[in-house]
Design brief:
Number of helices: 8
Low-confidence stretches: none
Structural class: alpha/beta
Bound molecules: calcium ion
Strand order of the largest sheet: 2-1-3-4-5
Helix content: 40-55%
Radius of gyration: 17 Å
Distance between the termini: 43 Å
Mean pLDDT: 89
CATH topology of the largest domain: Rossmann fold
CATH architecture of the largest domain: 3-Layer(aba) Sandwich
Number of domains: 2
Number of strands: 12
CATH superfamily of the largest domain: Response regulator
CATH class of the largest domain: Alpha Beta
Shape: elongated
Length: 228
């Protein structure tokens, strides 16, 4: 069965173009034109991924929708944003969105990003199955993480970032390398996305996110996972 993508977007023309390209790429597409409809469609249709416009008409804007989606699920979310919405974009990443695409974009880029995100979710890489660092345990095949035996819920992007670090404990990665590890490609200006995902990860994993024990900053380089 075709993977279903939910597009929450009020610009009908733009939505139609994206829908066409996604359908040609073999995806099923569900469309909602405001936040309320978007949440209803998400609950009814259980899509594999959500493309979420940030600037939506009606009572719920894209950030409200993102916040609610994250309370209910770990579904991959790609935000569609205007250049001027930089602050919103950062808030969106903070709320747990996986990625963003800046308007105007080419529909081909949307398809490529959807594919990349879904590939990450659906095909965990081969390698050691369970990685342990201090009392942090990462099960790569099950996509599960525990801290001192307690399960921690991570979004796809957070998990992939942690898994990339965990495959080489102690090795420092630059932001660009981490982007490449997690997305298979680098995109302009997305290194700050890594910082935000790291911040979210620390909020979830660390007893004191300002004094991280697992995911460490390597000054002048980027990040690494603690050894042992
Ligand atoms: Ca809009």
């Amino acid at each position: 069965m075709a993977r279903k993508i939910l597009i929450v977007e009020d610009e009908v023309k733009l939505m139609r173009t994206v829908r066409l390209y996604l359908e040609q790429a073999g995806y099923g597409v569900v469309w909602a034109e405001d936040g309320q409809q978007g949440l209803a469609a998400f609950r009814n249709e259980k899509p594999a991924l959500v493309l979420l416009d940030l600037n939506l008409p009606g009572e719920l804007d894209g950030l409200d929708v993102c916040r609610t989606l994250r309370r209910e699920s770990n579904v991959p979310i790609i935000m569609l944003t205007a250049r001027s919405e930089e602050t919103d974009r950062l808030i969106g990443l903070e709320l747990g969105a996986d990625d963003y695409i800046t308007k105007p974009f080419s529909p081909r880029e949307v398809v490529a990003r959807v594919r990349a995100v879904l590939r990450r979710v659906e095909q965990p890489e081969p390698g050691p199955e369970i990685i342990t660092a201090s009392d942090l345990q990462i099960d790569l095949s099950r996509h599960s993480v525990t801290v001192a035996g307690q399960p921690v819920e991570l979004t796809t992007s957070e998990f992939e970032l942690l898994a990339a670090l965990a495959r080489y404990p102690g090795r420092a990665f630059t932001r660009a390398q981490l982007l490449e590890q997690t997305q298979g490609a680098t995109y302009e200006g997305y290194e700050r996305t890594v910082d935000q995902h790291i911040k979210n990860l620390r909020q979830k994993l660390e007893a004191d996110p300002r004094q991280p024990r697992y995911v460490l900053t390597v000054h002048g380089v980027g990040y690494k996972l603690t050894e042992g």
